[in-house]
Amino acid sequence: MIDAPVRDARIRTTTTCESRSMQHAGAARNLRAMAAVCVTALGLTLGLPAAAASALTATTPATPAQASVPYRIETVATGLEHPWSLAFLPDGGMLVTERAGRLRLIDAAGTLNPQPIANTPPVSEMSQSGLMEVAIDPEFASNRLVYFTHTYGTKQANNTQLSRARLEGMTLADVQPLFLAKPAKVGGSNNGGRFVFLPDNTLVLSIGDGFDLREQAQNPANHIGKTVRLNRDGSIPRDNPYVGRPGVAVEIFTMGHRNMQGLTYDATAKRLFANEHGPRGGDELNLLAAGGNYGWPMATQGLDYTGARVTPYTQMPGTQPPLLVWTPSVAPSGMAVYTGERFAAWQGDIFVSTLVEKSVRRVKMMAGVPTGEQEILFKELNARIRDVRDGPDGALYVLTDEQNGRVLRIVPQ
Ligand SMILES: [Ca+2]
Predict the structure, then answer these.
(1) CA 118–ligand 1 middle distance (angstroms)
(2) Domains of the chain
(3) pLDDT at residue 411 above 90?
(4) Helix 7-15 to helix 17-42 angle, to the nearest 10 degrees?
């Protein structure tokens, strides 16, 4: 599903869909050949947990999960313009990004500072583009380092950039670009832009397929439609899966993705999960493992926006099937594993915020594996939800994707 409302993407699909489909039909033949070469030549040992290999791919609606305990929704802050991401600070405050390029501070008392944090880099806000993810360094208390993603470049040539800076009061100091996805793409769609820290001091960052570059998701020489794994200073971990392979981008961690806007690491199960927008239908939840190929656009359960098939294949040997599929599209955005004490029934479950369904999906998990049960939460908000976070206070936090966006906290009733 496109990250609607996307003005330029919709216009393009209604005006150029026929030629686009024909281009893709030819390109699909090429990429199947390419992918066969890649999968064989790379010959990767994926080391995927057994659960991934035997994953049951289910479409929505899934069996309803047992109803949650009663909850109450509290408003933390309002007046945020299309907030995208939320990071908790050790002092009880929060950082929130606004897509237009502002980084905002909510202090420990819950007050939104009327001034944005100074010295954020300029961003080009186009449809889905702008300032996206924010996270603090795992050692923030001692180094004050903040990481964020934003779109870098022009409408005709842009891509997702990861940057790092030191937070000094209400200013960013020493703003340093760490990684810029290549090649550049046109327009503001399918940027990816989420990242998550892993316990081994690296981070994994999602890069979308740019909407028009879908075949490149199978090209191991670039970053389009991939996740990349980096050290915290932007350098390349020596144990990345493609290191030492000629012609392959050494930053790549996984490939064959469309547009991943949610990443979360389950520290208990020691598993990295990603959600991904399909085209029309075929939104996915995936378990990521080093070197994995997740199939796009060779295999998908979604259709093109014209209603045509993207590919004849819903699965393909050598690619990893999703753990779950959402058809029709829910448009998954943020994602979190709930670890708190306040909702005992939710512990270990994955929460996926959605834009089109205007909900949060609770994906019931057992030892890091989906049970097949899901619960649709927070429909009463009637709002596109951009992010969901596991708060250090045991509450669940969500951001609404609105002109007058909100930070909301969900606590037991
Ligand atoms: Ca896939």
Answers:
(1) 39
(2) 7-412 (2.120.10.30)
(3) yes
(4) 100
Burial of 33 (0-12, 13-18, 19+ CB in 10 A): exposed
* 94 Cα–ligand 1 center, Å: 33
Give tens-digit pLDDT for 46-94: 444 433 433 444 455 556 676 678 999 999 999 999 999 999 999 999 9
CA 69 to chain centre: 28
The model's pLDDT over 136-180, given as tens digits with 9 standing for 90+, comes to: 999 999 999 999 999 999 999 999 999 999 999 999 999 999 999
Q: How far is the CA of 322 from the centre of ligand 1 (A)?
A: 6
Q: Is the peptide bond before 116 cis (omega within 30 degrees of 0)?
A: no
Distance 297 CA to ligand 1 centre (A): 8
| Ligand 1 centroid to residue 341 C-alpha, Å | 33
Q: Show the CA angle centred on residue 106, arms to residues 80 and 168, nearest 5°.
A: 115
**What's the gap in Å between 256 CA and the centre of ligand 1?**
7
pLDDT of residue 128: 83
357-381: per-residue pLDDT in tens? 999 999 999 988 999 999 999 999 9
- What percent of the chain lies above the pLDDT cut of 90? 77
Rounded to 5 degrees, what angle do the CA atoms 386, 388, 390 make? 160
Q: How far does the centroid of ligand 1 lie from the alpha carbon of residue 320, in Å?
A: 7
Say whether pLDDT at 117 is over 80: yes
Q: How far is the CA of 59 from the centre of ligand 1 (A)?
A: 13
